[in-house]
Structure formats: C-alpha cells, structure tokens
Amino acid sequence: MAMRIRIVDAFTDRPFAGNPAGVLLLDAFPEDDCLQKVALEVNHAETAYAHPLPEGGEADWALRWFTPATEVAMCGHATLATAHVLHTTGAHEGPVRFATRSGVLMATPHDDGSITLDFPTAPLTPVDAPEGLAEALGAQPRAVLDTGPNVGDLLVELADEKTVHALRPDHKAIAAHSTRGIIATARAEDPALGYDYVSRCFFPNVGIDEDPVTGSAHTALAPFWSERLGRAELTGLQASPRSGRVRTELRGERTLLSGRAVTVIEGELLA
C-alpha cells in the first residue's frame, strides 16, 4: 500500500536544523506492526501518523507517534510537524485538535508561519539524585526532578550553560535512571542572545541517544524555569548539533509551545 510521506524539520525556520519528523496522513491507522516498521525505516526521532475523525467530536484528527523502537505517549516536535503539514497542504484549516494518548492537544497556526501547541504541563517532583547519575551524565546535578508519567524523564539542573554544552554522557548508564531519559538544563549565560535557558535531552530507552529538539521536554522546562526566572513567557535553546528554539508560555496546568517548521522531503512510501 503506497502512503504519502513527508519529512518535516520542526522548531526551526530553515531546512536541516531543528528536529526532523516523518509525517503520514492516512485514512485510518494500519496495524501497529506496520506503524513501527515504517518508523524504523524513516529512522528519525519520531514518525507521526494522523487520520481525520468524524465531525462533531472532541477532536479533528487522531494522532500517534513512534520512535524507531516504540510508540510514545507524547511528542511535541512531531505534533508541530503534523500541524504544519495539515496547514500547508490545506488538509485542515485553522486550529486543529488531536486525539492522542495524552488527551486532546491543540495546535494553532499563525499568520507569521509559527504554530502554537497547547500541551499539559508536566508535574515536577523533586527527588534525590539516583546513585550513579552524576557518573552516567558526566556532571554533578544541582537539582533533580521527576517529570511525571507523560514525559517520563528526570529533569537535571546543572551548574551552568557550558556544562550542558560539554556533556558526553554514557547512554547505556543513563537508561537505568528513568522511563524515557534525561533532560539536562542550565540557565542561559547571556539572555541577550535570545534564549533564557539551555537544554539537551538523552532518551536511550526509546532508541534516541540525543534528541535534536524536544517539545515534550519543554512542558517540564517551562514550569521549572518560569518559577526560577519569574516570567511565564520564556525561550529555550536545545543545544543539540542541529539545535532549535522553543518559545514557552506557562498557563498553570497547560503549557504553550511555539515554533516553526519546514517540509524538506515529500514522496511515496511503497510498502
């Protein structure tokens, strides 16, 4: 069965940056085994599958996300990529409501080309640093927080931005410390550069050693840094080799994530 597939770079306004995602708009979801095999073939951090739902319901499209290794409960960049495809192809006009494993998620396109996602804010719970975490990460934590079941990471604050950039973690060792992985973060050294905090994300448990730009992680980073910096609206830089910026706005139990996306490849998947 031939399927139209697009590769979209999310949380960036230029090709070959941000986080790439596969996006497939379908009439219905095939068997899970098929979805997983396609995600492995695409071999990006996530591949998103969406199909339209009947009118009059609480959502417009059903949406699922798969890494090369497994299905995940929440994914920001592939949601942004899917909303971008729906908007740019005319498959859906205006705000779109996605039915997902994390509830109904809203994506709103804007005239300037950006898209805002409305996601649940991650509940943060301070925890003691697990034994061996500092050695696995290669840096001493200042604070460690659990991010709850939807995100499934440990959020680890480090001493400074330079420490985050310099991380060379032991991915196998990191896998023992959380459901999905580790979010490492620090305050920006120079906010005049246009971002308030920096992060890197390591997710070996779902087959991703380092994720280029992680929308879901920012549902935890937003409340963490908003409390410390005293502002609801912030910009985070995810300092992977591809890099990308996520604008966040904390609204209590919801977090708004805003960014842009670029379609870089479009074709037929012959399978």
UniProtKB/TrEMBL annotation:
This protein's UniProt keywords: Isomerase
List of catalytic residues: E46
GO molecular function: isomerase activity
UniProt xrefs under InterPro entries: Phenazine_PhzF-like
Keyword field contains Isomerase: yes
KW Isomerase (keyword) present: yes
Gene Ontology terms: cellular component: cytoplasm
Family: Belongs to the PhzF family.
Database matches in NCBIfam families: PhzF_family
PANTHER family hit by this protein: PHENAZINE BIOSYNTHESIS PROTEIN, PHENAZINE BIOSYNTHESIS-LIKE DOMAIN-CONTAINING PROTEIN
Name of the protein described by the UniProt record: Oxidoreductase
Species assigned in the record: Streptomyces spinoverrucosus
